[in-house]
Amino acid sequence: MDPKKISDEISVAPQILPDDVGALAQMGFRSILCNRPDGEAADQPTFEEIDAAARAAGLTAQYLPIVAGKVSDQDAADFGKAMVSLPGPVLAYCRTGTRSATLWSLAVAKDKSPSDILSATKAAGYDMAGVVRRIVNGGKTPTDTGDAKYDVVIVGGGAAGISVASSLIARKSDLNIAILDPADIHYYQPGWTMVGAGIFDAQTTAKTMGSLIPKGVHWIKSAVAAFEPKDNAVVLDGCRVVKYDRLVVCPGLKLDWNKVEGLVETLGKNGVTSNYRYDLAPYTWELVKGLKEGRALFTQPPMPIKCAGAPQKAMYLSGDTWLRNGALKDIDIRFMNAGGVLFGVKDYVPALEAYVKRYDASLNFFHNLVAVDGPAKKAWFDVTKPDTPVERVEVEFDMMHVCPPQVAPDFIRVSPLADAAGWVDVDQATLRHKEYDNIWSLGDVMNAPNAKTAAAARMQAPIVAQNLVDDISGTSPTALYNGYGSCPLTVERGKIVLAEFGYGGALLPSFPKWMLDGTKPTRAAWILKEQILPPVYWKAMLRGREWLAKPEKVSAS
Fold it and tell me: What stretches pass through the bilayer (predicted)?
């Protein structure tokens, strides 16, 4: 007997024996719900035997038998009623626990999100892939069988999704392609660092999604609820189903603001801001301009995060402003980094350390933000230095720029596409899924060990497009990804350390050293960031014009 907790109200288990009931009572269960018909197997105890043991142990028992593989909508409704009427917590059982987990999933589908249901059952060891459409449909059996079908379905209309669509059309114009994304607005997120420093206006970083979807590509304005890769299907909110021949998954990642206690309530006020949100980046600049003295904290959570340099970019540009307006001598800058190094590629660290010294900033490694009290201007960090007990410290602040914890989107983490950590599981060279060979992934959501940046997506889009077209033509992948990513580290207004690197921290500069030495702060790199890259993004990358991003053709080994 091994009960698996699904929620505070219910656990499920394989077949129990009368002798197990006393132990269940000691575990705190108050009711037993039997979902296995009597006589299903010769060696199973009858419900009458379980009921007698339950009464002897002071527990309530109920019989709700379900034939294996035949869970009806009414069965799920009856299970839901039993959960309400029985004293909790409840232990539900069948032969393996799967029927009970399925009944719970369908019973709560009207009240819980599909990702929450799939996450809870997955954690308990039960795969609900077989009823995912019913879960998405509020626990009811879907009646709509009119599935749309496309050659290629792209999940996500961000930088990666639109770029790969354009790159596909450039290679094979007759493809029938659909992009799935519920958003109305598309953002140029690399610009938000500049918004937070008063260099860009926020409005210049946003365009309507409809204006950017490539001509001829279908835009389905809906969120994805679940994947059925064995059936080549994507289930949308509302239980509509989109079928595909090939799938590209690139919905980005999730900013998990709720993981820091008190953060959501204070964002955008009380001196707490973040350049990771369109509406908050202007507040960063407002705070920087207004701060004349006090303490400014800049936080960085555990990896992985998108644009790993962004937390310190905000610190450098803020420090530069305070240096220029004479306030720096009265401001205590602290970089609170959950990691143990300033930057993951050592070649760029000396230049960055010089700016840390210039702004007299203190580096606090292994400090992970866990809670904030905005009105009290206090933050708490868990300090997790190697080989030492975790220590929680309190730090007061006048301004705090927060980089939130980041995870894969919920509907990805609970899907069959994800690895153990929740990211889409791909071959890091071809970006093809390791199990499903008609699925590719790129951008922030996949698990290749590269930096999660727009520059990485710019390089990945043509590679995925080429390899997908290769697959259509029946050949092996001819384009390989080397892990390229770029992080323009804005160390002062007018100068940037242009970090460009690939797998293993290998330097991958786009320009000759005599033209632009990325390990040193340069004006040329600033011009690239401020004046050249935004139009390259809007007018080249999103339109399939692969400037400095054409994949090298590699013959299959």
Answer: none
